[in-house]
Amino acid sequence: MIIRDAVEDERSYIREQRINAYMEHASKIPEEHWNVLREAIASDADTQPGVEQIVAVIEGEIVGSVVLFPPKTDAYKGLIADVLEDPEIRMLAVSPEDRGKGVATALITECIQRAKMKGSPAIGLHTSDFMESAIKLYENLGFKRLPQYDFEPTDDGIIVKAFRISF
Predict the structure, then answer these.
(1) pLDDT 10s digits, 58-74
(2) Burial class of residue 10 in the structure, from the number of CB atoms within 10 Å of its CB (0-12 exposed, 13-18 middle, 19+ buried)
(3) Average pLDDT of the residues of the chain
(4) Which residues pair with 94 in a beta bridge?
(5) How far apart are alpha carbons 134 and 130 in whole angstroms?
(6) What is the strand order of the sheet 52-58 is part of?
(7) Alpha-carbon distance 52 to 13, whole Å?
(8) By CB neighbour count within 10 A (0-12 exposed, 13-18 middle, 19+ buried), where does 11 fall?
(9) Domains plus CATH for the chain?
């Protein structure tokens, strides 16, 4: 597996792959929430200055991606009251057929290493309870809940929960 920065002409493919990877959640949540989530993962938020788009490649094919937002970036377009002090992992996606190969762990590990190299004391992320396998992965890697940075993107009771790991 090769972990590297994405290149410009891969962005549309990566966004499409993200939507396909998250599609399994569409039936678990209200349609309005799915529409907001789909819009967020397909947006051009990954092109903001300082944002790193990272891909995992196996046998020449992109099998997963993640976006790393720098500290003090509004990664959630005003949904969180305070700008986050730590880098933020967003839009982690692995093709369904490539799950179980360590792709997500490799991408998260790369984000952690990049944050450490830049002198950050921690890194954060957000996810929801309907992403059970993601929460299990983050907790197994040592991420802890940070409820003061939770938010509710739609008025449907689904909370997007904050997690953080300190180094």
Answers:
(1) 999 999 999 999 997 76
(2) middle
(3) 92
(4) 64
(5) 9
(6) 2-5, 52-58, 61-69, 88-94, 122-128, 160-166, 144-145
(7) 16
(8) middle
(9) 2-121 (3.40.630.30)
